[in-house]
User: What shape does this take?
Amino acid sequence: MSQTEGILTDREIVGFYCQPEAAQRYAGYFQENARHRRKDQREKRCIARGLAGVPCGALVLDLPCGAGRMYPLLKQLGFFVVSADVSPYMVQAARSCAEATGQMSDRDLFCVADVVNTGFKDKQFDAVLCNRLFHHLADPNIRRQGLRELSRICSGPIVVFFFSTVATDVVRFFVEKHIFRKEFKDRIPISPFTFLKDIRTAGLSVVKWLPSRSLISKQWYVVLRPLEA
Assistant: This one.
């Protein structure tokens, strides 16, 4: 599998996120305006809650790391961080972000990796953050492959972001899809019950659901653990 293939079935989506322009855009996207900054803070609060209990000094995988937005948070929580993404441009942007913080250690690593075939060792990580990926995965088989791989490489909590249908801000999506017949290939909300089926099929159990804004926002997190953990 090449560095630009695998995690997404739609070639245009894969191509976009693997371009240098995408990395440049995402480097400052969540600081562009007050609305984006509020969204950034809500996501960080959910992630901190999801990783609560992971001890200081733990090795945490951030996949996909994007442009490194969560690196300062993970360092603030006391973790060593492996930042990985399918896009080498995102990985480079994440490294630049980390260098700018002055918090890098010798155990912080940056690498290209695909969520369905990471190349990491079994139970290599104490925790995993998988932020802003699964809403791109319309195919349940790909979602389950990704979840199985995250389960294989992690011995502790796995914090996963997805778009939930249990929110008022998905009304526009359903209007465009069912009334205006718009075809969506990306950023598709799914019900927690559907995602729960994927989770269980992948051999994982739910610790807790973490909506960023209950009943309002489609941006949800779920904390998972391998069944044997």
